[in-house]
Amino acid sequence: MIYKTSDGKEINLFSKTVLKDLKLKERAQAAFEKAKTTDYKQKAADTVQKMKNLNAKKLANDFIYGKPHEERALGTLYVGGTGLYKHREWRGVKDTMYYFNMIWLYNYAHMVMDIMANGGLIPFAKGTWRYRWMGQTYLTVMHWFDRGLEGMRGEALRASAWHYRGMVNESIRQFMRMFVADKRLNGGKENETWKKTISHDETVSGCIFYGWRDRMDDVALQMIPYFVTCHVNNHTVLHYIDAIQSIGLPADPCPMCQAEAGIFLTSDVPDYSPVVVTSNEACDGSVATSILQDWFLDRPLFAMPQPMRFDDPLVQEHCQKEIEACWKFIEEQTGEKMNWDEYVRQAEDFNKLTEFEHEKWDVAANTDYYPINGVAQALYRIYYSQDGNRPIWHQIDKKVKRILEKCVKNQIVTFPKTRHRVIAWSCAPLYYSNWCTWAYNCWGLNCIINMDSLMFDQFLRTDTYEHALEDLAMFNELAPMRSMAVGGYEHIFRLWEFMERFHCDFVVMYDQLQCKGMQGIHGMFEDEFRKRNIHAIWVPHALPDKRTVSRREIRQIINDYMTTVMHEEPLDPTLVDFEDGDSW
Questions:
Q1: Fewer Cβ within 10 Å of end Cβ, the chain: N or C?
Q2: Whether this model's pTM surpasses 0.90
Q3: Are 414 and 307 contained in the same domain?
Q4: SS3 262
């Protein structure tokens, strides 16, 4: 039989060559069918064997209480290449239901309530549509909870989650205040909220403005568009860094200052206040940012610098005069006088937060019953101490206090897989604040305290005006990165004091590659680590810019140290290496 192909060739279908090919194909098909049948039989046999090996009691126990730490395999929950969940972790009946009801549903409901209580849906919708950082960051906020609370159980899950709740509530209050007052969202008009709002650098503490809290409010310029966005979505600030570099800024200054300048360059800061108070904290890059703020905002500005070396009494006197000059500036520009009684009320209220913080530190330092993980503790502490006294912080502290007392009373070991008590020093990678959650889950590295958590450690006296001014000046100088990063080596070297105080045996040393201050003291730390025989891991990063050192690279540095130096095995091998560059 002759068959003609499309190109004109003639093939005899009964030729020996063709018949041979057909036989080979038939054999191959038969072999495939046999292998397929055999494979299915083997799989069925394997399944039956697995079912026989199953321990019904253990299955029930895992369902009720969740799998033990070493069996959880948290890394298998991720979609490949993203670090995002295929599905959420089963933490046992009680903790899974708590997470669903008191973290997911509770926060979604209260976020809507917070928006409605602070201006309503119209300003929220306008702000989300107008500002890039709003739509990119705050609509993904629940994934922030997921990362920071991954693998957590019991009282530690509950206490840490309340800290996140406090930060979300205060973030909403701040950006809603911005949107309600924003001239850009109100047809260029100056409404009453605009006139009654004070804008300031995020590193100028809200405590400075306590004397106006009964009639006005204060909102930091960069806290919401920059600082919080880094933690929630590590992609957001990259646009602003690229924007400022596109007009000629070299890439070597601090990325924090680059990002903050880029926000102003792209006109992505709401116009919500008639005045602005700036600072030089923590370096000359901040001064340059303040100059750009002055250009772009084009309104009355008061620069309130913080000294790099603040031990000299004459420097203290100078700083007190700076604060008084700032108060006078606000009075002249707004027509509102400082209310001393309101300052006293707010400062004494804030002292209660500091008192409870010391109580938490005492439990963290001397027991295994501290129910707050490293990321929740650090972010909450930085946030409330810079933001100043707010009702939400007292509400959260009240809830956490009950959990803390329960843990101490019942001697609940909240992080039972702790192998090393870690102190994290210097400025942290903002795009990977949840590394300490990963470090505990993977290696048993429990981050007890962070350097930034120890800033602003100052009670504010209110018995006399002079005492109040003295303490407020010192408080302002104990700002993040000022006292322990660029405030002189004797302050930076307080690391040894805090290691002893918190009974830590391990240091994670953040190495901000573009911080000239910390780079200059790198060698001195190395010498001290060797002399004191301290285990320390240097973690390089670029503050908000994940492109210089990725989160995966940070994990690999820790992995290498734990295997080659400490000779330890991971608690959860599925977390040792995974790609999460595309995740929030």
A1: N
A2: no
A3: yes
A4: helix
Q: Which residues form the domain of 43?
A: 2-55
- Upper half-sphere CA count for residue 418 (Cβ side, 13 Å): 23
In three-state secondary structure terms, 205 is: coil
In a domain, 83, yes or no: no
The reply to whether 49 and 151 lie within a common domain is: no
Residue with tokens 């890039």: 132
Longest dimension (CA), the chain: 114
pLDDT of 77 > 80? The answer is: yes
Q: Strands (DSSP E) along 372-440, which ranges?
A: 420-425
Residue 80 domain-assigned (yes or no): no
Residue 21 shares a structural domain with residue 109: no
Q: What is the pLDDT of residue 3?
A: 46
51 and 96 part of one domain = no
Assign 326 a pLDDT band (cuts: 50, 70, 90): very high
Environment class of 265 (CB within 10 Å of its CB; exposed 0-12, middle 13-18, buried 19+): middle
For 128-145, write each residue's pLDDT tens digit. 999 999 988 887 888 899
For 36, list phi and psi in degrees, rounded to 5. -65, -45
Question: Are 507 and 403 contained in the same domain?
Answer: yes
The pLDDT of residue 243:
92
Torsion of CA 464, 470, 471, 477, to 10 degrees: 160
